[in-house]
Each structure stands twice: as structure tokens, then as C-alpha cells.
Amino acid sequence: MRISSSARAAALTLALFAGCSRASRDPLVGAGATFPYPVYSRWFSGWLAQGGRSINYFSVGSAEGIRRLAAGEADFAATDGLGDDPRLRAFAARCGAVLRVPTVLGAVAVGYALPDSALRLDGETLAAIFLGRITRWDDPRLRALNPGRPLPALPIAVVARADGSGTATVFDGFLARQSNAWRIARAAALELPHWPVGTRVAGNEGVAAAIRSLPGAIGFLELSYAEQNRIAVAAIRNAAGSFVAPSVASISAAGAERLTLDRADTVRSLLDVRSPSAYPISSLTWLLIPTGYRDAERGTNLIAFVRWAITQSPHTRAPALEYAPLPGPVAASVDQALRAVRPTTCATSPKE
Fold first, then answer.
1. Do residues 293 and 350 lie in contact, with contact meaning Cβ atoms separated by under 8 Å?
2. Of all residues in the chain, what percent carry a pLDDT higher than 90?
3. Which of 5-9, 22-26, 179-183, 254-258 reaches the highest mean pLDDT?
4. Which of 15, 72, 86, 177 is most buried as measured by Cβ atoms within 10 A of its Cβ?
5. How deeply is 154 buried, as exposed, middle or buried, from its count of CB atoms within 10 A (0-12, 13-18, 19+)?
């Protein structure tokens, strides 16, 4: 049977349309920080439930997320780190700017495994613990911070991160601001962050599991992971001299001091805020969103999700998971900036 040229053209058009349709509904792929994973996971499922595109996210740490984005293995990355990365500069040279979009605020909590103790700590003492200079829970310096509280004659088991981690970067930054001894050790280290003692594990999940399994353990982890695993967290002395435990309210207090409308795109750290009610190891977390994609429609879908997430989802989902949403004016400012983004096609990112 002969098929007319017009019929062949129509069939080819339908086949191409069907192929594009299937490609356009492939899941978006993200990778990076474990710090915001609990709230991001809730956002992804909420977005899908209302008809949005599915998103596969790999909670592998900030450094690995950046590597995957730069290598064209992910549509976006997530990070809590503050540094500039040469891999992102190289990616931007090929595919256009990479946007750094704040999403929510969280806390790096100091979790510990001690019976019957509401612990108070300061930066100098934490640095001494993570340098291996305070090795027992009944050390006089810990007793001085916790008068009347039972501190056992038990070795301290330090837990730190083994992977490239935004959570670790935030905690390291806090210790560097608080302790000259930490700054000296940090300057002499061959790698950063510098964890000279203790057990190293991957991810906030790994830290939570290690604290739960090691008597006398202490480690740093995002607050949501501590809450989910029923891990006790310390109150930390802030710049005003108050001992403040991590919570949505104390994280929000840290953000309220620093996150004003005119600084929404420039704020780098919340570690030196001075509000008496602020938790001193609070942090923003960011999505790294490229403007160039192998299929520009993927970028359009991603931006639609992020706009929904920062303007609608956080207020119903973030606080329940111990994160603080962006202040309303900041969320509106970020949303307005994203409205103007027009994703383009980039042949080298991401890979099929």
C-alpha cells in the first residue's frame, strides 16, 4: 500500500510530538544538601499531588550536588554552603547564569546522647570538644556551664560529617567565629572543615543514627533530623549572652534580624546576629538553579515549582518540620525575581 507524502509527514509530526510530550514529563532531577531534605521531600510530593511535575531528589550532600549539576547529571542542586565553586563558574560559562535562590531557614542543632540532662553549651566549649581537648562529660568547663545539672563521668564520643556538607560548613563557620583555637587549627588543616577527632559519617541521617547508637555521643545535625529521631539538643549561647535552643521561633528571630527586603539576595550568613531570642547556628538554605537546560521547558517547570514552594508551601509545611519560612517580603522579592527568568537551551546540560 502506498502512503502519501502528506500522510508520512503527518505521521512523523505526531511521532515527534509524542516524543516531546514524553520527554517534557520526564522527572526533574535534583541533588545536594541533606539539611533541607525533609521539607523538600514534602514539597515535591505536594507539588506532584496538585498536578505538577515529579521531581527526583538525591540527598547526597552539598558538594556532591554541585558536582552533579556541573557535570550535567542534575537539573538543579541544593546547598547550605556559602562559598563560590569553580565548577559552577565553568558551568555558567557554558550554559548561562546559575541562580542562588533562598528557600527556607533551618538550624544546625547540637545533638547528644546523655540521660536526664538539659545541656547548655557555648562556642568555645564546643570547639574544645570537637578539637578533642574536652573528652569527658564531667569536665569542669561543662560543669561551669551547667550548674546543678547531672553530667556523668562518661567519655564524649564526637560525631562529625565525612562528606562535603553544607551543614558542616555552617557549624564550622560558627566555631570559627567563636574560638581562636578553632581558627588556628582550621588554618593548619589540610582539608576543610577540620574534624580532628571522632567518628565521621555521611549525611544528617548518618549523624542521627550515630548519636542514637553511641552512649555519650555529641554531633551536629539539622534540627528536623534531631526531632524525628528524638535526640536531645543543646541550648547554645548566642551573641547577646542568652542560651537559646533551636526552634522555629528562634530560627525566625535570627532571620528577622538579617533578612530584610533589600538584602534578600545578598545575605550570606546568620551566624553573627545579635537578637537575644535568636538561635546562633541558624542558616538559610539555597537551591542552585541554572538558566540553561538541554530542554528549556524543564527550566520553566522547575521555576514554576520553586515559585510555588517559596510563596505557598512553606507556611503550611515548613514549620511542622522545624524549618522557618522566608519572611513574607523576602519570599515576594524572590518570587518577583524568578518571574523574570527565561530558561534557555543548553546542549551540554543535563545529560540524558
1. yes
2. 64
3. 179-183
4. 72
5. middle
**Can you tell me the mean pLDDT for 234-256?**
96
Residues 243 and 125 in one domain: yes
221 and 299 both lie in a single domain = no
20 falls within a domain:
no
Backbone angles phi, psi at 225, to 5 degrees: -70, -35
Please, are residues 338 and 307 in contact by the beta-carbon 8 Å criterion? yes
Q: Is residue 13 part of a domain?
A: no
CATH no. for residue 205? 3.40.190.10
pTM for this predicted structure: 0.84
Question: Span 257-273, mean pLDDT?
Answer: 69
CA 270 centroid distance within chain: 14
Question: Is the domain of 225 the same as that of 287?
Answer: no
Residue 95 CA: distances (Å) to CA of 70, 91, 347, 351: 10, 6, 8, 13
